[in-house]
Specification:
alpha/beta; globular; 7 strands; single chain; S-AdoMet-dep_MeTrfase_Alr7345; Rossmann fold
Length: 285
């Protein structure tokens, strides 16, 4: 099954992107930032997270994804919580934030990981409440092995932040995206931020194992799985990233993998975090 999912992306590698007119009409990174979002980004509770704003561009990214403070928003695979802490501040007062966790029944995970996924979903509401100072009932979470009927068709947005490569290499992409599609309202949208490979990068480098994917492949995958490409933003672009690291994206900050010497570390820090695509998709009827 894993080879089938990855072969699908390889087969469409040469396909053209969606209508360029549509892409050009998408909001740009210079769009006006909604006041509640600006306030959340500036909140003192984000003091430790703010250093990465220069790389993650949360104001431009969430504005491009057209997230508003009254929406119900799912964050897929919340991980370390960097975006959850911001989204908790932004959505907590008037909206709803839901953590969407991997299907823990997948054979991609061992028993320890499966237990950790379920535990993460259980802890999520209380953790975001503590981070944001908002009531825990403003937050919820569940795993994607079974989508509750009451949740289907209720989400305005779902955010998939730097996670598509894992979905592909773990053979979860088709199942998880299908589950997310079930959760979205008829006009709901998925925003994807993902490490971006060069357009001519070989399949061996873009199968998910290096963290980088080709933009055209991600777009076509989403189109095949029931979404219309709305547009793209270059808010998270980094032209200094050659996107060809033998050990993958983890060579760059913040991981700085491979134990680099001080001179190499300085060069990598000067490059910064990875070049990233920022894509928006609407649920197709």
């Amino acid at each position: 099954m894993r080879s089938l999912s990855l072969a699908l992306l390889a087969a469409v590698a040469g396909s053209s992107l969606a209508n360029p007119v549509m892409a050009e009409t998408a909001k740009t990174a210079s769009a006006m930032i909604e006041p509640a979002l600006a306030a959340a980004i500036a909140d003192p509770l984000r003091e430790k997270d703010r250093a990465r704003d220069v790389y993650r561009k949360p104001a431009e990214t969430l504005s491009f994804f057209q997230v508003s403070p009254t929406m119900k928003v799912g964050e897929y695979a919340p991980g370390g919580g960097w975006y959850s802490r911001l989204l908790g501040l932004y959505l907590g007062p008037k909206g709803k934030l839901v953590g969407l966790y991997f299907d823990p029944t997948s054979s991609a995970f061992g028993d320890k990981m499966k237990a950790g996924i379920r535990e993460g979903a259980t802890k999520y509401p209380a953790e975001v409440a503590e981070w944001s100072g908002q009531p825990a009932e403003r937050f919820s979470a569940f795993t994607l092995d079974v989508v509750p009927d009451s949740e289907k068709g209720t989400f305005d947005r779902i955010l998939v932040m730097r996670m598509m490569h894992n979905l592909l290499r773990w053979n979860l992409a088709a199942h998880e995206i299908k589950q997310m599609r079930e959760l979205l309202k008829p006009d709901g949208m998925i925003g994807i931020e993902q490490h971006r490979a060069k357009p001519d990068a070989p399949y061996s480098f873009t199968d998910g194992s290096k963290g980088y994917l080709r933009e055209a492949d991600v777009i076509k995958f989403m189109e095949i799985n029931g979404f219309t490409f709305v547009g793209k933003s270059e808010a998270n672009a980094n032209p200094k990233d050659p996107a060809n690291w033998p050990n993958g994206v983890w060579t760059l900050p913040p991981q700085l993998g491979g134990n680099p010497d001080e001179a190499t570390k300085a060069k990598l820090q000067a490059i910064g975090e990875s070049d990233r695509m920022t894509l928006l998709f609407r649920k197709r009827p």
